[in-house]
Amino acid sequence: MTKDQGKRGGRGRKKGKEAPAKGSWGSLAAAIGAVAMLGALLYGSFKAEDRTASVSPEPATAVTTTPPAVTTAPAPAPGPPPGKGANGENWNDAQIAWQSYEAGITRAKAENKPVCLVFYTAWCPHCRNYANVFQDPRVVARAKDFVMVRVNPDDESAIGDKYAPDGSYVPRTFFLAPDGALMTDVHAPRPKFQHFYDENDPSSLLGGMDAALRKLARPM
After folding, report:
1. What is the pTM of this model?
2. Is the dihedral of CA 217, 193, 139, 161 positive or negative?
3. Please, what is the end-to-end C-alpha distance for the chain in angstroms?
4. Mapped to the 3 state alphabet, what secondary structure does the chain carry?
């Protein structure tokens, strides 16, 4: 080999030592790529956190409360029609001014009128029949000369016990003087149950009314 050839060979070997290996370049490129990817991930994470921090919280939804339903008491059961008692008897309240016992005694004294006092009960069938007597126009007209009082002894037992000379049967009718004194001699013409006037014949009660007015010498 000549001297020149040796130099060329030496230069060739020197260049071969200076050239980097292909594997080193590949590792470097991979490392750079990994760093870039990590940077991208970190950047994306920071951006996400920044967006979360900058978003204002949504306002709380207002809670609307429905007021409690207003409950109303059930309507009371309708009472008996005007002029009728609790058991359906018709005492003709529209044409006869019935009073309570206390109010009737007070009114009789104030107006100087006798009292027609009737005892009845809601369960008594004879009372229902007797109530119809007060529909008669003659009884209605004569009732204007009296203070008309109706008492249920089941509700006012003390008053019922006070007026029971021959028993506590119903219906029974008494006539009182304006001062409240009982007219003991004015009653139905019968030996027993003398204060039981005919439940079907108005003339029976009319006879008692007329007798009471005659006793007081009042014009009829």
Report:
1. 0.62
2. positive
3. 182
4. CCHHHHHHHHHHHHHHHHCCCHHHHHHHHHHHHHHHHHHHHHHHHHHHHHHHHHCCCCCCCCCCCCCCCCCCCCCCCCCCCCCECCCCCECCCCCCCCECHHHHHHHHHHHCCCEEEEECCCCCHHHHHHHHHHHCHHHHHHHCCCEEEEECCCCCHHHHHHCCCCCCCCCEEEEECCCCCECCCCCCCCCCCCCCCCCCCHHHHHHHHHHHHHHCCCCC
Length of the chain: 220
Tokens encoding 147 = 């203070």
Q: Within its chain, how far is the Cα of 169 from the centroid?
A: 40
What would the two tokens of residue 119 be? 């005892």
Q: pLDDT tens digits for 101-151?
A: 999 999 999 999 999 999 999 999 999 999 999 999 999 999 999 999 999
166 Cβ contact partners less than 8 Å away, ≥ 6 residues apart? 192, 193, 194, 195
Identify the pLDDT of residue 89. Answer: 80
The strands making up 147-151's β-sheet, listed across from edge to edge, are 147-151, 115-119, 172-176
Torsion of CA 131, 133, 136, 142, to 10 degrees: -100
Structure tokens at 18: 């200076």
